[in-house]
What we know:
By secondary structure, this protein is α/β, with parallel strands linked by helices. The protein has helices at 3-21, 23-32, 50-53, 82-93, 108-114, 126-130, 135-144, 150-169, 173-180, and strands at residues 38-43, 61-66, 98-104, 185-192, 197-202, 207-210.
Amino acid sequence: MSHMEKLVEGFKRFRSQNYEENRALFERLTKQGQSPKTIVVGCCDSRVDPAIVTDCDPGDLFIIRNVANLVPPFETSGNYHGTSAALEFGVRHLEVENIIVLGHAQCGGIRALLNQAPGAEPQEGFISSWMKVASNARNRILSRMHDESPEKQARACEQEAILVSLDNLLTFPWILERVAQRKLTLHGWYFDMEHGELLRYSADSNRFEGFS
């Protein structure tokens, strides 16, 4: 069986099982539209699906996925802003109450970033340029963990990049306004798929901790 055939067979199972068992939910979502309470900014990595990790139903999450789950800073130059456009729709039109930046272990984008020498020109292609969003995370980690192993540096940078994205979220005026009004809460989560753990960033301890 080819992979395309596997996908089609998967849809058939979904149609006969999940869809039929939850027909009322899908009919409500069709008629009333979506009204998710939470945005998740996740990674494109095929191993880290936010809906699967959180065991959510259709309609629960408004998911934005890109390489290394990054949020760029607010800016109006250029032409293409897929992540920013999705944030705008989720915050200003769907009026979500939470934004989660969901990072993860073994992130290929972060490893590519760490392998790029600080100050070097971006390599050819889109990934290197995009990962510049997290360059401050790389610089901080290499500065304070220069004697640590590449594995420890990568894990620390994966988590530090989440904090960069949380800071960048606050550069969007309509996000900052809603956070100040306590209509919107920002969260930093880290999925350690090696150990099956989900960690959250605690501002009180300034580190990622398990959920109690």
